[in-house]
Amino acid sequence: MKKVLLVTAIAVIGLLNVNAQEIKFGAKAGLNFAFITGDNTKNFDPNTDFHLGVMAEIKISDKFSFQPELIYSGQGADTNIESEGSIALNYLNVPLIGKYYVTKGLSLEAGPQIGYLLSTKGGTLDYKDLLKPIDFGVNFGVGYKLDNGLNFSARYNLGLSNINDVDGFTDKNRNGVVQLSIGYFFF
To answer: Does residue 11 lie in a domain region?
Structure first.
């Protein structure tokens, strides 16, 4: 896990050293509509939670920019199993988003994400012992940035890695999250 975070940090620092014309820092927050997909998930319903974090936008050209983020994200699922209730999975996610500006302010966004499982809550089991500590995904979305720094985005995070970590358990499950965000670039 430390190696993955180190490689991510080096990649971000390397991109900062590129001849970036402008760097803006900001914060964002919003709603998550999270779910777990894969095997034996018929009793799972989407879970509503929130996300909160910081971001930087590094302008590469008039049309392209790079936006690394550090986001706390509430994920998981609601179950139709009475004894389990909601399964809350709390992640620290690092999305590395490429942005293409279609027109002034309107951008298409995509990029990889690595997540670190911080904690779990709900149900009768300690789910943290049953899940992998690292989650990989890819983001797709759209954003709109106003001249005053206020910005809005809608994004889908498609989980790529199996989150289960139980010996002998063959079911494969992945995270999925729809995020609606509002943010502000300070400078």
So the answer is: no
